[in-house]
Each structure stands twice: as C-alpha cells, then as structure tokens.
C-alpha cells in the first residue's frame, strides 16, 4: 500500500480537486484498489459524495439502472488523530490511499500524518500568497524528508500545478522552486471549468463523463500524463495497470 497525502497550508488551492481526479482515474481506469480518507474538517470530498453523487445513485437504484459498484473507490471520513489507526485496520484491502488534510501545518497531528505518508503532493499556485504559503510548506517537507532518510523511511514530496494557466507568475514559481531544490511533477492540470464539477463516481478518462462536463480533448491527455507520472515517481505497482 502506498500512502499519498495531498496537502498545502494555503486553503482553496485545489487539494480536493487533485485527489478526485487521481483517485477516479487510478481506480476506474488503471485498476488500483483506492481508498480516499477525508481528514479535512471542511469535508469537501465527503460532501461531494453525499450531496452530489448519492442522490443520483439512489435514483438509479430505484429505477433498476444502477451499475455496481456505484463508486470506483472507497471514501471515508476520519479524524486527523485516527488516520493511521484506520489504515492499520484496512491496509491490506487497498493498493493506494489518498489523504486529504486541513490547510494548516502547525498542528502535531498534521505533521504526524505527513510524516507517515510515502508521498506528499503539494498543489502549487502562482499568486504571492500562494507562493509564500507553498514555499514555507515545502521547506517543512524538506525537513520531514531529511528525518525520514535518517530513519530509512520511504518519503517523497512533489509540487504539482492543479490549475495551471501558463501565466508568467507560474513560470517564475517553477524557476524559484527549482532553484530551491524543491521537486515538482512535470504533468499538471489546466484551469478548466470541468474540474470544478467534481464527482466521486466518474473518471475524467471516461469519454461519456468528459462530454457531460464539457471537457475538451486535452483533458484525457493531461489526466493520463499526471497518473502515469505519479505511478512512476511514487513507484506504484505497475502490474496493476490495465
């Protein structure tokens, strides 16, 4: 099991969107057994499933048109202090676990969750506020990485543009993080309206779903590129890929 935490101390930077895109594709299209742990007090992912997705599931079930399973991956709400107790209970059932955490890094429970992950993905923005928050947070991850190496633990972290728009500020951010030696994924998600129409039922690699949310042809390519790079960098078991 690989544990992937998606975190940034700046709120509203795309953590839940990134998890939704990756979890849906890796489970529905790549064949991984995926668990998503919503440990964020805002409960964005749990809210999407309960408010947006569950009613349509019930309608399909009543009409006798529901295809099982209704959801491609398991989603659980777990308190920050209980995350790893829960993973100890269910770890053998999953290949990949994504953890959505609150937008703060000054809490002991938060640091414990980050330290126990194999990979931390840090959604990266380009505004001054996003830049300052991201740099500070990634420097914290550098320290966790140093301590993990000393203990022989598997720990990596990467910045990832979850709403890239090709602004000059984004290129400046890339150069700045590269100069600091902060790693980042080359693949990114563009700031497209379709990513704001979140669903925990469907993958953006599904042509019917892309048509339903008005996604253009580039969406499949960028989602697949992001999944492929994460699989390689996080060393997910390649035999599972369909």
TrEMBL record:
<dbReference type="Pfam" id="PF01656">
    <property type="entry name" value="CbiA"/>
</dbReference>
<dbReference type="InterPro" id="IPR002586">
    <property type="entry name" value="CobQ/CobB/MinD/ParA_Nub-bd_dom"/>
</dbReference>
<dbReference type="InterPro" id="IPR050678">
    <property type="entry name" value="DNA_Partitioning_ATPase"/>
</dbReference>
<protein>
    <submittedName>
        <fullName>Chromosome partitioning protein</fullName>
    </submittedName>
</protein>
<feature type="domain" description="CobQ/CobB/MinD/ParA nucleotide binding">
    <location>
        <begin position="4"/>
        <end position="176"/>
    </location>
</feature>
<dbReference type="InterPro" id="IPR027417">
    <property type="entry name" value="P-loop_NTPase"/>
</dbReference>
């Amino acid at each position: 099991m690989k544990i992937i935490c998606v975190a940034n101390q700046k709120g509203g930077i795309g953590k839940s969107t990134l998890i939704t895109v990756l979890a849906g594709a890796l489970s529905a299209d790549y064949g991984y057994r995926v668990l998503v742990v919503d440990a964020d007090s805002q409960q964005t992912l749990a809210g999407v499933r309960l408010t947006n997705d569950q009613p349509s599931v019930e309608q399909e079930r009543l009409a006798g048109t529901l295809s099982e399973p209704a959801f491609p991956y398991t989603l659980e709400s777990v308190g920050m202090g209980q995350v790893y107790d829960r993973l100890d209970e269910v770890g053998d059932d999953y290949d990949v676990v994504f953890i959505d955490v609150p937008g703060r890094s000054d809490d002991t429970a938060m640091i414990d969750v980050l330290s126990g992950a194999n990979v931390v993905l840090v959604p990266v923005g380009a505004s001054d506020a996003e830049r300052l928050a991201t740099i500070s947070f990634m420097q914290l991850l550098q320290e966790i990485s140093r301590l993990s190496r000393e203990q022989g633990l598997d720990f990596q972290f990467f910045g990832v543009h979850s709403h890239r728009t090709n602004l000059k500020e984004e290129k400046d951010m890339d150069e700045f993080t590269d100069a600091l030696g902060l790693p980042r994924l080359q693949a990114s998600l563009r700031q497209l309206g379709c990513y704001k129409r979140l669903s925990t039922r469907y993958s953006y690699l599904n042509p019917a779903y892309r048509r339903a949310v008005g996604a253009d042809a580039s969406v499949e390519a960028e989602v697949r590129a992001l999944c492929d790079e994460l699989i390689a960098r996080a060393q997910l078991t390649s035999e599972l890929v369909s």
